[in-house]
Design brief:
81% helix; 7 helices
């Protein structure tokens, strides 16, 4: 029985590390829309820089700029939120706390191919083991 518990603890430790890695990669990839954010700000505050001699009105360019800013800000916010949640799931896996949160983040992570899918599937497989559920239950003290 101790061999099984040691194996489960090793799997949870590895999953925790991989959650940190995927969270970091997600935070990095969530920074890509910053290019669109800057471009949108240029369209709003300096439309003459992007006009290139076209006859577009500054108001039309500002509307397009706001579209770029809002879309980019939402994408960045969602990406960073996902990254923070993945890092938190890694921390909770390492501490054997918040089983439901870890399970939900594993399921949500499956959406993000390829790393999130692989990590999510393996995390779900490990979390469904009764011995792993016991590890989480043994750390629960109501605090």
């Amino acid at each position: 029985m101790t061999e099984l518990i040691k194996q489960d603890e090793d799997h949870l430790r590895l999953l925790s590390i991989f959650h940190y890695i995927v969270g970091g990669l997600s935070a990095l990839f969530a920074c890509f829309p910053i290019i669109h954010l800057v471009m949108g700000l240029v369209l709003i505050f300096a439309p003459h820089q992007m006009s290139n001699g076209s006859k577009e009105s500054p108001e039309a360019m500002a509307v397009m700029g706001w579209f770029f800013v809002v879309f980019a800000a939402i994408m960045i916010l969602l990406g960073w939120t996902f990254a923070v949640c993945m890092i938190l799931a890694g921390r909770f896996l390492a501490r054997r706390r918040h089983y439901t949160f870890c399970f939900v983040m594993a399921a949500v992570g499956c959406i993000f191919m390829p790393f999130g899918t692989i990590l999510g599937v393996f995390t779900i497989i490990v979390l469904l083991r009764p011995s792993v559920k016991g590890l989480f239950a043994s750390h629960w003290d109501g605090k």
